[in-house]
Specification:
alpha+beta; Immunoglobulin-like; six-stranded antiparallel β-sheet; four-stranded antiparallel β-sheet; 29% helix
Length: 184
């Protein structure tokens, strides 16, 4: 009788181990496939030009992810302008970098007064309308020759705001893609 109990326990352990392994592979496959469809916009290069009292910053926005980014917006606190692009594609046939000229004259609020929290914001959506934001900290440095502030943007450590869907939500979103591709 003891041998039957031990054999039954061993069979249950083997079957549950195989089930956990299969589930682990299934979850890993879903995560990998989901990551393959996500965009990742970043500012990869920044140039600055100072002409008298006017500073022109030109960040280059690039999609380093694998999916297209939709409704892309670049904003700077204390800058009245705004840059928007409908879609930025990843590396491939439709790939291109976007240069965003940000002209800051002497009357720009970011140059006239010290702001408490100043960021360069990059916002976009993925194909499922999930919102992503990338915040680059901006430092204002008082220019000793003028009464204006000069701008420095830290590109190496952005703060990211990203959605974190569950495995079930990822699976549903991926099924929606496959259903759209299958129908003519």
């Amino acid at each position: 009788m003891d041998w039957l109990l031990w054999i039954a326990l061993l069979v249950v352990l083997v079957i549950s181990g195989a089930g956990v392994f299969a589930l682990y592979r299934f979850v890993g496959k879903i995560k990998c496939e989901f990551q393959g469809h996500l965009p990742m916009l970043r500012i990869t290069n920044m140039s600055a030009m100072n002409a008298g009292e006017v500073i022109t910053l030109t960040p280059e926005v690039e999609n380093v992810g694998r999916g297209a980014a939709h409704d892309c917006i670049v904003q700077l606190a204390g800058w009245e302008g705004r840059f928007a692009v409908q879609r930025i594609h990843p590396k491939g046939p439709r790939y291109q970098r976007h240069s965003v000229p940000i002209v800051l004259g002497q009357d720009a609020p970011i140059r006239m007064k010290l702001l408490s929290r100043c960021y360069l914001r990059l916002a976009y959506r993925d194909r499922w309308e999930q919102r992503y934001e990338c915040w680059y900290p901006v430092a204002q440095i008082k220019n000793v020759n003028t009464s204006l502030y000069d701008i420095q943007i830290e590109l190496s450590h952005p703060e990211l705001t990203e959605p974190h869907p569950s495995i079930r939500e990822m699976w549903k979103l991926l099924r929606r893609i496959h259903a759209n591709e299958a129908s003519p």
